[in-house]
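Lab notes, practical 5.
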Amino acid sequence: MTGTITRLPDLGWMLRPLTEIPGVRHAVVVSEDGLRLGHLSAENLSGTVAALSVAEAESLSAACAAITMTARSTASLVFGGGSGVRQLMLESEHGFVLFTQAGLGAHLGVATDTGADVGLVAQQMQLLVAKIGAHLSSQPRDQVAPSPSS
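Output from the prediction step:
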């Protein structure tokens, strides 16, 4: 049995409104299982990570999936089964990373520097999701049937 791999469209272009907010460095759209669906870095950045490469965006996507799964497990323990997680914020000494649900099976992640207005960034993330959430969604992949044993 042979399968085909479908290339997912890059949704990075949708992230431009976020990367134009002062203090926003990078934005990424991630499938629930950690696949990068698109990413974009703000223009004219300097510093250690001036622009996310595809490999760095894929690593950020995997980390986003791990963090959201951990948060979902934590919320279930604290609030009971079926508790969803809407938003997460990670703070470091260099800035913030915000994650939010972005449609069915997808998340949106935004990295900022310390000078960013985090409330504005979170608000704009929600507006973007409301505006184009259907495009940010990631449909579940089909189950693969086990190959028959010989």
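Observations recorded by the TA: The chain has three helices and five strands. The chain has one domain: 12-136.
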